[in-house]
Design a protein that fits this description.
mainly beta, Rossmann fold, Elongation Factor Tu (Ef-tu), domain 3, 3 domains, 4 helices, 14% helix
């Protein structure tokens, strides 16, 4: 299970995460592992947010559950709420003593806790929802390394489905085929990795970048000109008739919103029911534009 910890305060996020688990990876997004009674959860936090907007998007695509820590109402906190609403992240916990303006957003449905220590206990004891291990594979790759004596290694998070040794998979958007040679979870060799787990795989194939791992036969495809429905956030008031950023997982591509479609500078992987988060990174007030749902 992946739990996102969000706040406008990077130090507050880091303190909260370190009190819960052991750091297992740090970059523009950081990961922590909670191990209790033979069960594990992975905490994720957008390390470079609010300085950069993309790590917030990356974090939300992985998250199964969201913790929002709110000490004061700031433009960045508002931005977090708009992002959660745009991606319909309905499962979460709001840690605050404030009466926040969340009516009409998904955050209105979140459980509320005022005490930060009670929130930590809640996350430690959080029960996983229904597993998606029987679904079609969707894994987000956030890092590639070449290890001496091992070869090519991809590190990522399984959102849906599972990966087994000897599986043949497709990496998107580059459409590269690879074969899984070995799998590790928390530096231990395993036969398979399933939904909700952070993994490392050694594989046979070409070097890759950030992107998706999917099955050979998959609903996912790449596209530059994608038909669909644009849903502008009611909180975004700037003009959208200019170049914007479109995100899915760890992939972000620039392009334009048209009448019933988007036109991108290069291909992005997508699936017909999953929203792309639309960003305006240079906007000084609100960088979350809304979402685009392919049809």
């Amino acid at each position: 299970m992946f739990v996102a910890v969000l706040s406008d305060n990077p130090e507050k996020r880091e303190e909260f995460c370190k009190a819960l688990g052991k750091e297992s990876g740090k970059g523009d997004v950081s990961f922590y592992v909670i191990a209790r009674e033979g069960k594990e959860k992975t905490i994720i936090e957008p390390t470079l947010y609010p300085q950069k907007i993309h790590p917030l998007a990356y974090t939300l695509y992985i998250a199964d559950y969201v913790v929002v820590i709110a000490d004061q109402l700031t433009p960045q906190l508002g931005e977090i709420i708009v992002a959660l609403d745009s991606l319909k992240k309905e499962n979460g916990l709001l840690v605050t003593q404030l009466n926040l303006p969340v009516k009409g957003t998904v955050v209105e449905k979140y459980e509320r806790i005022a005490d930060i220590n009670a929130a930590k206990e809640k996350i430690i004891n959080l029960e996983e929802g229904g597993t998606q291990s029987d679904s079609e594979l969707l894994a987000f790759v956030d890092q590639y390394i070449n290890v001496k004596s091992v070869g090519n290694v991809a590190i990522g998070s399984i959102k849906e489905g599972k990966i087994k040794k000897h599986d043949r998979l497709i990496f998107l958007p580059q459409k590269k085929e690879l074969e899984v040679r070995s799998i590790q979870i928390n530096d231990k060799d395993v036969e398979e990795a399933k939904a909700g787990e952070k993994f490392g795989i050694a594989y046979k194939g070409e070097p890759i970048e950030r992107g998706l791992l999917v099955s050979i036969r998959s609903e996912f495809e790449n596209g530059k000109n994608i038909m669909g429905r644009f849903q502008k956030s009611p909180f975004f008031v700037a003009d959208t008739n200019r170049k914007l950023h479109f995100c899915y997982g760890f992939n972000s591509v620039e392009g334009y919103v048209l009448e019933n479609s988007i036109s991108l500078d290069k291909e992005i992987p997508y699936r017909k029911r999953d929203p792309l988060l639309v960003l305006d990174p240079s906007n000084q007030k609100l960088r979350i534009v809304g979402s685009f749902i392919p049809t």
